[in-house]
Amino acid sequence: MPGHQNHADRVRRKPLVPLPDELSGPVRDFVSSLRRMHGELGYSLKELESRLPASRSSLSRYLRGQSLPDERLLVQWCTLSLTGEDRLPALLNLLHRAQEAADAGARAAEQDGTPDGETQVDADDSTGVGTETGAACGLPDRQRDHGCPD
What we know:
The structure is a single chain. By secondary structure, this protein is mainly α. It contains five helices and two strands, in the order H-H-H-E-H-H-E. It has a two-stranded parallel sheet with strand order 1-2. Helix 1 (25-41) packs antiparallel against helix 5. The protein starts with 24 loop residues before the first helix and ends in a 19-residue tail after the last strand.
């Protein structure tokens, strides 16, 4: 992996694992774009944690598609990259579409009688990913981040 344009010697220490096959639709599109930008930055999660108001575990969940960042964090993440600000409008659009899909999945799970706070993920269900925007995250409490109020 190439390093950050300003730091050619900086190489990400650990490659990202492939996205799970069950992650599809708008969430997959957003996470794929976020991963591309992250790869160009060349920062490890530890380095990124020191530059953003998010923990390594939260950043890892965002890059695995297990949760979605809020808009403010995405803007800050984009400003770290020389090309990130140019990508920001497209990334924000993808984030909004992914959040809508995740919210629709959480509502569908509630209607199906899924226990409160859990989301079932089917192999072809692109909406089984929670967001960091509220109790409708669709994630169990232990997986919610500081940005997900109860």
